[in-house]
Design goal:
Helix content is 10%, strand content 45%. By secondary structure, it is mainly beta. Strands 2, 14, 15, 18, 19, 20 and 21 form a 7-stranded mixed β-sheet that branches. The chain has a 7-stranded antiparallel β-sheet with strand order 30-29-33-34-35-32-31, covered by helices on one side. Strands 22-28-27-24-25 form a 5-stranded mixed β-sheet, with helices on one face.
Length: 512
């Protein structure tokens, strides 16, 4: 008797995607039951019009089969043919004829035995597969029960019980959630994502930060345990305690999930859907890296490319990465310009993680930042939570129009019949003023369009103004990002608004 684990989530997974533990059990039944085995013996080849009637499943399956030299497609006629021996006819023709009958093939494995016998072995363990046979004709068709079936006996109230202990990684105590499922076909699938996604934390790295930041405080740490249980008063069997695992509050949309195995997450080297981005002047930018190994010292390695065709490689800074930790790595405009040769024009930077003992050997695939040197007239710097649950920055480079929206409702007043006509009959209620922006994206590259699509799908948006993150709302609308024949993308317009509790009267002067 055992509870066997068939699948488990990766060490790090995304909380909004399926986080699946799958188990099989062979302990669901106290008696597993026995298959029914029966032989039907033919002593001669049936004649046209002879019949055989088989009844099983306590009369629910009642099948009358007629032997014919030219059977029709009804599924109730069996072919007869001329053979030198009965055994040859049964082996070469009749066994296949029985297999072609739907109800027989559904419930039985049908094979040939010696001496003109056809064996019927029930596909399931149960008593009611025993045949009642009646025949018309002198061909034989006698029934022999080789093994009588026995029904399985299921344990009362059988289920798989589980408990999930979860917390943020740096918290001192766990919260416990009890879970249980009843097996279907001896298997259970526990999807923990609805519970894991109840922990929703996002660390906002300071925009001016120039050193790495350990943001493991937003990691979800969890440990699951499972056991079989049964009985009128539940008796819990041996507990299977799983290893500690981690999750990030992120996840793909349904379309992207279908491209992967449903119960396995794939996390990239840097937590981004892209391998390159455009960086504009004064834009903060962060890469995020999971260190799944033991504590060690790592470096963020940069290869800087200049407009004159030259390049150089250097370490931006080192990281003392603890076991199973998550890091925010600042690598925005100011950091790259400070590290670059002051006498040259920086055009591109390629970033990788390396072990400090061997900095020239990259541990992951590079991420490329392309620098836009000329300052844009309008910049609308945004931050949003990407699909991997970490903060990502993005800049819209088109025109910006400030907006001011007022909404209100009118309510009727109860008045007496003789109220003066000059008295108001209505009053204004629920009046709200919302400040916002109508922003054009500017012409988009293919990489920019991917980031914009993810920004639109995100559940968290922030305006970056004077180094401060200000929560804003993206107004929902039916819009399409279009591509031209030259594979560049047209400008796209987005509408943003301050959250209602952030709408101050002086917002027009406070936010540039």
């Amino acid at each position: 008797m055992a509870l066997t684990k068939l699948n488990e989530p990766e060490l790090f997974c995304l909380a909004k995607n399926p986080a699946v533990f799958e188990f099989s059990t062979n302990n669901e039944y106290s008696t597993n039951g026995v298959s029914t085995i029966q032989d039907i013996t033919f002593t001669s080849i049936p004649a046209p019009g002879n019949t055989i009637r088989l009844v099983w499943r306590d009369g629910d399956a009642d099948l009358l089969l007629t032997f014919s030299g030219s059977p029709d497609d009804s599924g109730t006629e069996l072919l007869i043919d001329s053979f030198a021996t009965v055994a040859q006819y049964v082996e070469d023709v009749l066994v296949d004829q029985f297999k072609s009958v739907y109800l027989l093939n559904r419930d039985f494995e049908i094979t040939y035995q010696s001496s003109g016998k056809v064996r019927f072995t029930s596909r399931e363990s149960a008593l009611f597969f025993g045949f009642t046979v009646s025949t018309v004709g002198s061909y034989g068709g006698s029934l022999t029960t080789v093994q009588g079936g026995i029904d399985p006996v299921r344990r009362d109230n059988f289920r798989i019980q589980g408990q999930l202990d979860l917390k943020y990684k740096t918290d001192s105590t766990y919260d416990r959630v009890e879970i249980e499922l009843i097996p279907v076909g001896g298997k259970t699938i526990f999807d923990l994502s609805p519970i894991l996604s109840s922990l929703d934390k996002l660390i906002l790295t300071a925009t001016a930060r120039t050193t790495p930041l350990d943001i493991s405080t937003q990691l979800i740490q969890y440990q699951a345990s499972f056991a079989e249980a049964f009985g009128v008063t539940l008796t819990v069997q041996k507990l299977h305690i799983e290893e500690v695992k981690f999750a990030i509050y992120g996840g793909w949309n349904l379309r992207d999930r279908l491209a992967f195995i449903f119960n396995d997450d794939h996390l990239p080297d840097f937590l981004s859907n892209r391998s390159n981005s455009l960086l504009v002047e004064n834009q903060p930018f962060f890469l995020y890296y999971i260190h799944a190994g033991a504590t060690t010292t790592l470096v963020l390695r940069a290869t800087l490319y200049y407009s004159d065709g030259s390049s150089e490689s250097l370490n931006l800074y080192s990281i003392s990465a603890g076991e199973n930790s998550l890091w925010s790595l600042p690598c925005g405009w100011e950091i790259l310009q400070t590290a670059a040769d002051a006498g040259k024009t920086l055009t591109k930077a390629s970033l990788t993680i390396a072990n400090s003992a061997s900095p020239t050997t990259a541990l992951n695939s590079p991420y490329t930042l392309k620098l836009l040197q000329e300052a844009t007239l309008d910049q609308f710097q945004l931050a949003f939570r990407n699909a991997y649950g970490v903060l990502e920055t993005y800049v819209l480079k088109g025109s910006i129009v400030k907006t001011f929206t007022t909404t209100q409702q009118m309510a009727g007043l109860w008045t007496k019949y003789n109220t003066n006509i000059n008295q108001p009959r209505f009053m204004v209620i629920g009046k709200e003023h919302v400040y916002g922006w109508q922003v054009a994206s500017g012409n988009l590259s293919q990489e920019d369009s991917e980031a914009l699509a993810e920004l639109i799908a995100s559940d968290r948006h922030y305006l970056i103004s004077n180094g401060v993150y200000i929560p804003i709302a993206l107004e929902a609308s039916n819009s399409t990002i279009k591509e031209t024949k030259s594979f560049s993308l047209n400008s796209y317009q987005l509408n943003f608004a301050l959250l209602k509790d952030k709408n101050y009267s002086n917002v027009g002067n406070r936010i540039g």
